[in-house]
Amino acid sequence: MILNIAQQLLNNDFVPILKPNSAKPDIFCAGRQTGPNLYCVVAVDADKEGYKQKFEQTAGYLGASHSMNDYNVVILGVFCTKEEVSEDLKEFTNETVESFEHINIVKWVLTPKGVRVYGRQPDRLLNIRDILESSVSKKIDAEDITDVFEKTYADKKARIVSKNTVLTYIITGVLAFIYLLQFLDKSDSMVYDYALMPFGKGEYYRFFTCMFLHGNLEHLLSNMLALYIFGTRTERYYGKGFFCAVYFLGGLFASVISSLFLKGFALGASGAIFALMGAVFMYSLRTKRTIDGFDLYFLIFFVAVGLAGGALMEGVDNIAHIAGFIGGCAISSFYKLKT
To answer: Are 107 and 93 in contact (CB under 8 A)?
Structure first.
């Protein structure tokens, strides 16, 4: 069970913190930093004698080595058992969360039927519970921890379809160049000639051209940042052809839906960018994996904040955002994943 957990953690951007104590270890520790928090998962074979002492020694080392850092450390003890959960193990994991300065210690039990949480321990930490559940359901053929490392590296390498993200940078450059032309166009003729207008005006090229225009420098820079974040991930994991399909078809879908509700002009690449968000979201949802540090819950939060911000700010076309996200989800669902 420890080897299974190790492989699933490594597949989800966790990195080993301590060197395993043997080729088939009875304890494994890996961590991942997310924002101000460092999450350390300590998986322990609770069917072996001395599992409490092993965990406490490891937790003590982690706490001491990270206590001087500014970020918060969450140490999650995962006590694995193939038998019925003993009263001793229940009592040990039923304790309240141990909290020190910048350090919190949480305890879960993992059985062949899944994760069990006792007492007032939190039952969710990032997507770690899903990772642990996957370690139970997905059996591996690795013989030892070295084999796990090799297979995980090969698996990650196989999932990367595109080795570079040149298309993302090209589109970013094009958006910047067109905005420069807009800036030099003192009469705003580019906006009047190419921005999106209410559907039915007959100038259907505007569905496409509006995706390259921006209202001001702040609008451009925010979209360039979002394009970098989600464009690079889409291009890496879906490939260049599918990246283009998601970006342009998703953006066109957003333009068409937005035009049905428009009363004036609309412009910006955000509909296409939300389509990229939808593609990354679907990849994480379908594979149950983090995508270069983004897990499913963070993606949900990111999209929700983006839509909430659009709803609160005047002049933001949230309909295009929602339509783009739905379009990106729909298009990417046709992609055959390399799981």
So the answer is: yes
Q: Which residues are registered as beta bridge partners of 78?
A: 43, 108
CB atoms within 10 A of CB 96: 10
Q: Active site residue: 162, 259, 321, 332, which one?
A: 321
Residues of the chain with pLDDT under 70: 66-70, 200, 338-339
**Catalytic member of 134, 259, 270, 284:** 270
The DSSP code sequence of 58-106 is HHHHHHHHHTTSSSEEEEEEEEE-SSPPPHHHHHHHTSPPEEETTEEEE
pLDDT digits (tens, 9 = 90+) for 239-296: 999 999 999 999 999 999 999 998 888 999 999 999 999 999 999 998 878 888 787 8
243 and 234 Cβ atoms separated by less than 8 Å: yes
Give me the residue label for tokens 């918060």: 72
Of 179, 156, 320, the C-alpha closest to 251 is 320
Provide the 10 A C-beta neighbour count for residue 166.
11
Terminal C-alpha separation, the chain? 21
Cα(72)–Cα(3) distance, integer angstroms: 27
Q: Residue 219 catalytic?
A: no
Structure pTM? 0.72
Taking residue 86's Cβ as centre, other Cβ atoms within 10 Å add up to: 13
Token representation of residue 10: 């490594």
Calculate Rg over the CA atoms of the chain.
24
Q: Which of 328, 96, 112 is nearest to 233 (CA)?
A: 328
Active site residue 66: no
Q: Which single residue is written with the structure tokens 């001491």?
A: 64
Pick the CATH number of 166-332 from 1.10.3720.10, 3.40.718.10, 1.20.1540.10, 1.10.287.1080: 1.20.1540.10
Inter-helix orientation angle 296-312/270-287, to 10°: 150
